[in-house]
């Protein structure tokens, strides 16, 4: 990609959190496999790929659908997982390039927000040890349980990114450009499409990339190399067309997107 390929410069940026800003995905994996080990089971990356970016309960339901022979309900799993995760959230740290990029955008007064599938309590547990990073977002944080446009409409629905953009004062409407483009009940105006197209989303999970696309925003995919190695078996579809794919936030070049360059 070159700066000449840009359709319009970016004037606000939205970030996923888990596996993108902080290394919390390792804790999801560690705690889940500790639970499953009692039953002689393991969450492989093929399974994990289908969980990433989804809200808590749908993700748990998807996980346990792979193990119908174990005596573990969704509620029991979530309860056990909560205990294990709470003990480890204080150990999460920013991923390479995250602090530098967010500080850079903040210093240049680029509107930024977090849009995470984590519930608010978990966001607070993860962000508290990393105040130098998350304080830069101020109150511009949207969590899965904050009340989205539609009930239980997590990623790949675009709601969370639309709500985050509205939090930044952007008039983006509520329509979903991907699920049913001809849905006249929630039309998206031409001006709203323009505003959406000036937003840039950073995501590591497939549902998040799809959600950004359905919002009509630009999206940069920063997948874990183990997820990328799975290819089609990770649930990728022909609809997954990120505007750019990076192996790390460290590889991001702001001026390619009409943003101020690093000094």
TrEMBL record:
<dbReference type="InterPro" id="IPR023214">
    <property type="entry name" value="HAD_sf"/>
</dbReference>
<dbReference type="InterPro" id="IPR023198">
    <property type="entry name" value="PGP-like_dom2"/>
</dbReference>
<dbReference type="GO" id="GO:0016791">
    <property type="term" value="F:phosphatase activity"/>
</dbReference>
<dbReference type="InterPro" id="IPR036412">
    <property type="entry name" value="HAD-like_sf"/>
</dbReference>
<dbReference type="Pfam" id="PF00702">
    <property type="entry name" value="Hydrolase"/>
</dbReference>
<protein>
    <submittedName>
        <fullName>HAD-like protein</fullName>
    </submittedName>
</protein>
């Amino acid at each position: 990609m070159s700066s000449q390929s840009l359709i319009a410069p970016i004037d606000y940026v939205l970030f996923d959190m888990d596996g993108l800003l902080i290394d919390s995905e390792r804790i999801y994996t560690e705690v889940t496999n500790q639970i499953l080990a009692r039953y002689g089971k393991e969450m492989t990356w093929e399974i994990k790929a289908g969980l990433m970016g989804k809200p808590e309960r749908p993700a748990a339901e998807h996980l346990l659908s792979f193990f119908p022979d174990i005596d573990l309900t969704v509620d029991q799993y979530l309860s056990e997982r909560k205990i294990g995760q709470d003990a480890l959230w204080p150990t999460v740290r920013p991923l390479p390039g995250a602090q530098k990029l967010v500080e850079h955008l903040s210093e240049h007064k680029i509107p930024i927000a977090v849009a995470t599938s984590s519930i608010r309590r978990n966001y607070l547990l993860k962000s508290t040890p990393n105040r130098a990073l998350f304080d830069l977002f101020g109150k511009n944080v949207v969590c899965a349980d904050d009340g989205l446009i539609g009930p239980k409409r997590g990623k790949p629905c675009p709601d969370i990114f639309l709500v985050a953009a509205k939090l930044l004062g952007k008039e983006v409407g509520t329509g979903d450009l991907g699920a049913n483009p001809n849905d006249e009940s929630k039309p998206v105006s031409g001006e709203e499409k323009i505003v959406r197209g000036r937003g840039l989303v950073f995501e590591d999970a497939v549902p998040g990339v799809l959600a950004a696309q359905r919002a009509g925003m630009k999206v940069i995919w920063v997948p874990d190399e183990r997820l990328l190695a799975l290819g089609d078996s990770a649930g990728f579809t022909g609809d997954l067309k990120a505007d750019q794919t990076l192996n790390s936030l460290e590889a991001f070049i702001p001026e390619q997107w009409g943003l101020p360059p690093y000094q």
